[in-house]
Amino acid sequence: MAAADDETAFAIQELLAERCAIAPADRTTRESGKPGVRLRCSLDLQRHHCSSWQ
Question: What is the Cα–Cα distance from 28 to 8, expressed in whole angstroms?
Answer without folding.
Answer: 11
